Recover the amino acids of this structure.
């Protein structure tokens, strides 16, 4: 009798412990990182296997570099800067070396960074001589009283802040140049002179379809062990841009935003739409004021609001409680994410998780 009673009590206790455990919120990861390398017409059918392998390897290297910073207790800002500097040196991406050309045959670079813990932000647009625009955006945030600097003034500030300056031809890549020439020919526009200092022309194996080059921006959002989130974005903008055009990437609230009250977002896509919708801030506003989950807010903005305007692109996001999200309405977006204790996930196409 007594043993029957013990068994029953044990069973009841075990059940209620299990129920209590199920109700317990999962412990939040101590750090998390999400990265993107641009969204656009990225399709299996037109992607060579070598190119795909190169992107996956590069996303892997960049994400691991960021994870390493966060794992040893580094700040979300440090992780973001470390990853974006790698992307800016990698000709695969439309940021730093490998950026697309303007209609005049120049590389004009934009970048922004934002610290969610204090709402400080730094941004630059139309930079032509600073090797790492993301580090310049960070210097604007930390070493100047301003939020945004443009053009020659921004490069001058970079030099004064001790950031590496390069000849504009450093950013030149044959693949991007030939892609510009192809687009301008198609549009019946004049072909600018090959930039001074560019290497002698070499045949390029693979020139992506003209649309592909509209995208290719890079961005990172991260949560660090101190519980702070941040966001950063870097880009060459859109191929063939004219008249000093600036997209969403360096506009705080449009392509880049972070607040510990809600989330951190980095965007990629047709910048004009992202500016008009203040996409990054909009996602965070839905989280903050409507109490949406991060994924739901991201999907609402990309699949409802952006699509209603016929805009293309995507975002990555992270929240202080460790939620990670991405959402895009293009055939692909180069992307990866990892949270402490979890597996690194790398994806390209829209049929991947
Ligand atoms: N959003 C960037 C811009 O409009 C381009 C991109 O994401 O590829 O400048």
């Amino acid at each position: 009798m007594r043993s029957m009673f013990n068994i029953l009590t044990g069973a009841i206790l075990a059940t209620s412990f299990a129920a209590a455990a199920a109700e317990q919120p999962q412990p939040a990861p101590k750090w998390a990182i999400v990265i993107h390398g641009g969204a656009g017409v990225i399709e299996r059918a037109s992607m060579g296997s070598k190119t795909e392998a190169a992107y996956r390897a590069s996303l892997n290297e960049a994400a691991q570099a960021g994870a390493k910073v966060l794992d040893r207790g580094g700040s979300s800002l440090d992780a973001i800067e470390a990853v974006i500097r790698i992307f800016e040196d990698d000709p695969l991406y439309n940021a730093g070396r490998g950026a697309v050309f303007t209609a005049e045959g120049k590389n004009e670079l934009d970048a922004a960074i934002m610290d969610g813990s204090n709402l400080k932000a730094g941004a630059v647009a139309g930079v032509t001589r600073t090797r790492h625009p993301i580090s310049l955006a960070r210097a604007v945030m930390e070493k100047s009283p301003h939020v945004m600097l443009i053009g020659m003034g921004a490069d001058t500030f970079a030099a004064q802040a001790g950031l590496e300056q390069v000849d504009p031809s450093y950013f030149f890549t044959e693949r991007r140049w030939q892609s510009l020439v192809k687009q301008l020919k198609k549009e019946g526009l004049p072909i600018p002179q090959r930039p001074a200092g560019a290497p002698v022309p070499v045949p390029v194996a693979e020139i992506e379809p003209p649309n592909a080059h509209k995208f290719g921006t890079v961005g990172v959002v991260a949560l660090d062990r101190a519980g702070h989130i941040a966001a950063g974005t870097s880009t060459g903008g859109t191929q063939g841009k004219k008249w000093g055009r600036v997209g969403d990437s360096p506009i705080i609230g449009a392509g880049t935003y972070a607040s510990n009250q809600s989330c951190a977002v980095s965007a990629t896509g047709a910048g004009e739409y992202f500016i008009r919708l203040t996409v990054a801030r909009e996602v965070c506003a839905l989280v903050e004021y409507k109490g949406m989950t991060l994924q739901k807010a991201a999907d609402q903005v990309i699949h409802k609001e952006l699509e209603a305007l016929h805009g293309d692109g995507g975002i990555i996001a992270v929240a202080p409680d460790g939620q990670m999200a991405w959402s895009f309405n293009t055939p692909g977006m180069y992307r990866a994410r990892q949270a402490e204790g979890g597996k690194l996930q790398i994806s390209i196409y829209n049929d991947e998780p």
Notes: The first strand starts at residue 32 and ends at 40. Residues 5 and 211 are 72 Å apart (CA to CA). Residues 38, 94, 215-217, 235, 237-238, 247-249, 255, 268-269, 271 surround aspartic acid (CB under 6 Å). Residues 1-5, 7-22, 209-213 have pLDDT under 50 and may be disordered.
